[in-house]
TrEMBL record:
Family annotation (SMART domains): HTH_GNTR, UTRA
Record protein name field: GntR family transcriptional regulator
Pfam families named among the record's database cross-references: GntR, UTRA
Signal peptide: none
InterPro entries for this protein: Bact_HTH_transcr_reg, Chorismate_lyase_/UTRA_dom_sf, Tscrpt_reg_HTH_GntR, UTRA, WH-like_DNA-bd_sf, WH_DNA-bd_sf
UniProt domain HTH gntR-type: residue ranges: 7-75
Protein backbone atom coordinates (compact mmCIF):
# COMPACT_ATOMS: atom_id res chain seq x y z
CA UNK A 1 0.00 0.00 0.00
CA UNK A 2 1.36 3.42 -0.96
CA UNK A 3 2.36 5.70 1.90
CA UNK A 4 0.16 8.74 2.47
CA UNK A 5 1.68 11.69 4.32
CA UNK A 6 -1.11 12.86 6.63
CA UNK A 7 0.63 16.11 7.61
CA UNK A 8 -0.84 19.41 6.36
CA UNK A 9 0.53 20.20 2.92
CA UNK A 10 2.40 23.33 4.08
CA UNK A 11 4.25 21.27 6.70
CA UNK A 12 5.25 18.78 3.99
CA UNK A 13 6.63 21.60 1.83
CA UNK A 14 8.45 23.15 4.78
CA UNK A 15 10.01 19.75 5.51
CA UNK A 16 11.26 19.44 1.92
CA UNK A 17 12.84 22.90 1.95
CA UNK A 18 14.24 22.44 5.48
CA UNK A 19 15.99 19.24 4.39
CA UNK A 20 17.61 21.06 1.46
CA UNK A 21 18.81 23.85 3.75
CA UNK A 22 20.22 21.49 6.38
CA UNK A 23 22.00 19.41 3.72
CA UNK A 24 23.66 22.51 2.28
CA UNK A 25 21.98 22.21 -1.13
CA UNK A 26 20.33 25.54 -0.35
CA UNK A 27 23.32 27.42 1.03
CA UNK A 28 23.35 30.45 3.31
CA UNK A 29 22.29 33.54 1.35
CA UNK A 30 20.51 31.56 -1.38
CA UNK A 31 17.28 33.12 -2.62
CA UNK A 32 14.43 30.65 -2.61
CA UNK A 33 12.27 30.20 -5.68
CA UNK A 34 9.47 32.73 -6.07
CA UNK A 35 6.02 32.04 -4.70
CA UNK A 36 4.79 31.30 -8.22
CA UNK A 37 7.65 28.87 -8.85
CA UNK A 38 7.01 27.08 -5.56
CA UNK A 39 3.28 26.93 -6.36
CA UNK A 40 4.11 25.21 -9.66
CA UNK A 41 6.76 22.95 -8.16
CA UNK A 42 4.52 21.64 -5.37
CA UNK A 43 1.17 22.04 -7.16
CA UNK A 44 -0.36 24.13 -4.37
CA UNK A 45 -1.93 27.55 -3.87
CA UNK A 46 -0.02 30.69 -2.99
CA UNK A 47 -1.55 30.63 0.48
CA UNK A 48 -0.10 27.17 1.12
CA UNK A 49 3.36 28.35 -0.02
CA UNK A 50 3.17 31.36 2.30
CA UNK A 51 2.19 29.15 5.24
CA UNK A 52 5.16 26.86 4.50
CA UNK A 53 7.55 29.82 4.37
CA UNK A 54 6.07 31.15 7.63
CA UNK A 55 7.01 27.88 9.32
CA UNK A 56 10.61 28.18 8.12
CA UNK A 57 10.79 31.85 9.15
CA UNK A 58 9.53 31.00 12.64
CA UNK A 59 12.20 28.30 12.93
CA UNK A 60 14.90 30.74 11.83
CA UNK A 61 15.86 28.97 8.60
CA UNK A 62 14.85 31.75 6.18
CA UNK A 63 14.27 35.49 6.24
CA UNK A 64 12.14 37.67 3.99
CA UNK A 65 13.60 40.82 2.43
CA UNK A 66 11.05 43.31 1.17
CA UNK A 67 11.03 43.52 -2.61
CA UNK A 68 13.80 40.93 -2.95
CA UNK A 69 12.41 37.58 -1.84
CA UNK A 70 13.06 34.95 0.82
CA UNK A 71 16.64 33.96 1.61
CA UNK A 72 18.36 31.18 3.58
CA UNK A 73 19.66 32.55 6.87
CA UNK A 74 23.11 32.00 8.27
CA UNK A 75 21.91 29.70 11.04
CA UNK A 76 24.20 26.69 11.08
CA UNK A 77 23.07 23.79 13.28
CA UNK A 78 24.84 23.59 16.63
CA UNK A 79 27.08 20.56 16.23
CA UNK A 80 27.60 19.39 19.79
CA UNK A 81 29.93 16.60 20.81
CA UNK A 82 28.39 15.08 23.96
CA UNK A 83 31.88 14.41 25.28
CA UNK A 84 32.89 18.06 25.04
CA UNK A 85 31.41 19.18 28.37
CA UNK A 86 32.35 16.18 30.48
CA UNK A 87 36.06 16.65 31.32
CA UNK A 88 36.51 19.03 34.26
CA UNK A 89 37.33 22.60 33.27
CA UNK A 90 40.89 23.71 33.84
CA UNK A 91 41.59 25.51 37.13
CA UNK A 92 40.58 29.17 37.07
CA UNK A 93 38.28 28.74 34.06
CA UNK A 94 34.51 28.94 33.97
CA UNK A 95 32.31 25.99 33.13
CA UNK A 96 32.62 24.62 29.61
CA UNK A 97 29.11 25.84 28.77
CA UNK A 98 29.66 29.42 29.91
CA UNK A 99 32.85 29.41 27.85
CA UNK A 100 30.44 28.91 24.93
CA UNK A 101 31.84 25.68 23.52
CA UNK A 102 32.91 27.60 20.42
CA UNK A 103 29.30 28.49 19.51
CA UNK A 104 28.76 31.86 21.16
CA UNK A 105 28.33 33.45 24.55
CA UNK A 106 27.02 30.83 26.96
CA UNK A 107 24.91 31.47 30.02
CA UNK A 108 23.19 29.22 32.56
CA UNK A 109 19.96 30.16 34.34
CA UNK A 110 19.35 28.14 37.49
CA UNK A 111 15.62 27.37 37.76
CA UNK A 112 15.44 25.14 40.83
CA UNK A 113 17.59 23.33 43.40
CA UNK A 114 15.95 20.89 45.82
CA UNK A 115 15.75 17.32 47.06
CA UNK A 116 13.14 15.31 45.16
CA UNK A 117 11.82 11.85 44.54
CA UNK A 118 13.36 11.29 41.11
CA UNK A 119 11.58 9.77 38.11
CA UNK A 120 11.77 5.98 38.02
CA UNK A 121 14.26 5.97 35.14
CA UNK A 122 16.58 8.31 37.07
CA UNK A 123 16.36 6.19 40.23
CA UNK A 124 17.36 3.13 38.20
CA UNK A 125 20.23 5.01 36.54
CA UNK A 126 21.58 6.15 39.93
CA UNK A 127 21.02 2.73 41.52
CA UNK A 128 18.72 4.16 44.19
CA UNK A 129 16.49 1.98 46.34
CA UNK A 130 12.72 2.57 46.33
CA UNK A 131 11.78 5.78 48.12
CA UNK A 132 15.31 7.19 48.21
CA UNK A 133 15.52 10.81 47.07
CA UNK A 134 18.01 12.65 44.89
CA UNK A 135 19.39 16.16 44.57
CA UNK A 136 17.90 18.03 41.60
CA UNK A 137 19.43 21.00 39.81
CA UNK A 138 17.16 22.33 37.04
CA UNK A 139 18.75 24.69 34.51
CA UNK A 140 18.10 26.48 31.25
CA UNK A 141 21.17 26.92 29.04
CA UNK A 142 21.47 29.91 26.72
CA UNK A 143 23.71 30.80 23.79
CA UNK A 144 23.78 34.50 22.89
CA UNK A 145 20.65 34.97 25.05
CA UNK A 146 18.68 32.30 23.14
CA UNK A 147 17.44 29.32 25.20
CA UNK A 148 18.84 26.17 23.59
CA UNK A 149 18.74 23.43 26.22
CA UNK A 150 16.82 22.40 29.33
CA UNK A 151 18.67 20.32 31.90
CA UNK A 152 17.40 18.32 34.86
CA UNK A 153 20.50 17.11 36.73
CA UNK A 154 20.11 14.52 39.51
CA UNK A 155 22.76 13.46 42.06
CA UNK A 156 22.83 10.92 44.94
CA UNK A 157 22.05 12.69 48.20
CA UNK A 158 25.07 11.26 50.01
CA UNK A 159 27.28 12.85 47.37
CA UNK A 160 25.44 16.19 47.08
CA UNK A 161 24.62 17.15 50.68
CA UNK A 162 27.00 19.68 52.15
CA UNK A 163 28.41 20.65 48.74
CA UNK A 164 27.69 23.36 46.20
CA UNK A 165 25.41 20.88 44.41
CA UNK A 166 22.81 21.52 47.10
CA UNK A 167 23.16 25.31 47.03
CA UNK A 168 20.96 27.66 45.01
CA UNK A 169 23.80 29.13 42.99
CA UNK A 170 25.83 28.19 39.96
CA UNK A 171 28.76 25.87 40.58
CA UNK A 172 31.99 27.75 40.04
CA UNK A 173 34.11 26.02 37.40
CA UNK A 174 31.30 23.63 36.50
CA UNK A 175 29.90 20.45 38.00
CA UNK A 176 32.46 18.02 36.47
CA UNK A 177 35.26 19.94 38.18
CA UNK A 178 33.41 19.98 41.51
CA UNK A 179 32.89 16.22 41.32
CA UNK A 180 36.53 15.62 40.43
CA UNK A 181 37.78 17.79 43.29
CA UNK A 182 35.49 15.88 45.67
CA UNK A 183 37.14 12.60 44.67
CA UNK A 184 34.49 11.50 42.16
CA UNK A 185 35.96 12.30 38.74
CA UNK A 186 33.61 11.60 35.81
CA UNK A 187 35.27 8.80 33.87
CA UNK A 188 32.56 7.50 31.56
CA UNK A 189 28.95 8.07 30.64
CA UNK A 190 26.11 6.61 28.62
CA UNK A 191 23.69 8.65 26.49
CA UNK A 192 20.27 7.44 25.38
CA UNK A 193 18.85 9.82 22.77
CA UNK A 194 15.26 9.97 21.54
CA UNK A 195 13.04 12.44 19.68
CA UNK A 196 9.48 13.38 20.56
CA UNK A 197 7.02 16.26 20.59
CA UNK A 198 7.73 19.02 23.10
CA UNK A 199 5.64 19.37 26.24
CA UNK A 200 3.99 22.73 26.87
CA UNK A 201 6.64 23.58 29.49
CA UNK A 202 9.49 22.64 27.15
CA UNK A 203 8.03 24.67 24.27
CA UNK A 204 7.63 27.68 26.56
CA UNK A 205 11.09 27.55 28.14
CA UNK A 206 12.86 26.89 24.83
CA UNK A 207 10.63 29.37 22.95
CA UNK A 208 10.02 26.75 20.27
CA UNK A 209 8.10 27.76 17.15
CA UNK A 210 5.23 25.70 15.79
CA UNK A 211 5.49 21.93 15.92
CA UNK A 212 9.27 21.66 16.36
CA UNK A 213 10.15 18.35 18.09
CA UNK A 214 12.80 17.99 20.76
CA UNK A 215 15.80 15.76 21.24
CA UNK A 216 15.81 14.14 24.68
CA UNK A 217 19.09 12.83 26.09
CA UNK A 218 19.09 10.60 29.17
CA UNK A 219 22.68 10.62 30.42
CA UNK A 220 24.25 8.53 33.18
CA UNK A 221 27.70 9.62 34.39
CA UNK A 222 29.94 7.25 36.36
CA UNK A 223 33.12 7.63 38.37
CA UNK A 224 35.89 5.18 39.23
CA UNK A 225 34.57 1.71 39.98
CA UNK A 226 31.47 2.29 37.85
CA UNK A 227 29.54 4.19 40.52
CA UNK A 228 26.77 6.42 39.05
CA UNK A 229 27.27 10.00 40.21
CA UNK A 230 24.87 11.90 37.95
CA UNK A 231 21.75 11.18 35.92
CA UNK A 232 20.67 13.96 33.58
CA UNK A 233 17.71 14.62 31.33
CA UNK A 234 18.65 17.13 28.60
CA UNK A 235 16.08 18.54 26.17
CA UNK A 236 16.96 20.51 23.03
CA UNK A 237 15.00 21.91 20.09
CA UNK A 238 15.65 19.47 17.24
CA UNK A 239 15.73 22.27 14.65
CA UNK A 240 18.91 23.75 16.16
CA UNK A 241 21.05 20.77 17.10
CA UNK A 242 23.18 18.12 15.48
CA UNK A 243 24.84 15.60 17.78
CA UNK A 244 28.38 14.86 16.60
CA UNK A 245 30.15 11.63 17.60
CA UNK A 246 33.77 10.81 16.84
CA UNK A 247 35.47 7.47 17.45
CA UNK A 248 39.11 6.56 17.04
CA UNK A 249 39.63 2.93 16.14
CA UNK A 250 42.77 1.48 17.66
CA UNK A 251 45.08 -0.83 15.69
CA UNK A 252 44.28 -4.52 15.78
CA UNK A 253 44.84 -5.89 19.27
CA UNK A 254 44.46 -2.49 20.92
CA UNK A 255 41.53 -0.80 22.63
CA UNK A 256 39.43 1.87 20.93
CA UNK A 257 38.74 5.29 22.36
CA UNK A 258 35.50 7.24 22.03
Amino acid sequence: MAYRDARPRHHQIAAELRALIMSGELATGTRLESTQQLMTRFAVTGQTVQRALAVLKDEGFVVGRAGLGVFVRDLSPLAIEPAAYMPPARPGAGSRWTDGGGHGRGRIHLVDVREVQPPASVAVALGLADGVGAQLRQQVLFLDDEPVELAWLYFPLDLARGTALAERRLVRGGIPRLLAEAGHPPVDWTDRISARSATTEEARLLELPGEVPVLRTARTVRTDGGRPIEASVLVKGAHRYELSYHQVVAPAGGASQQ
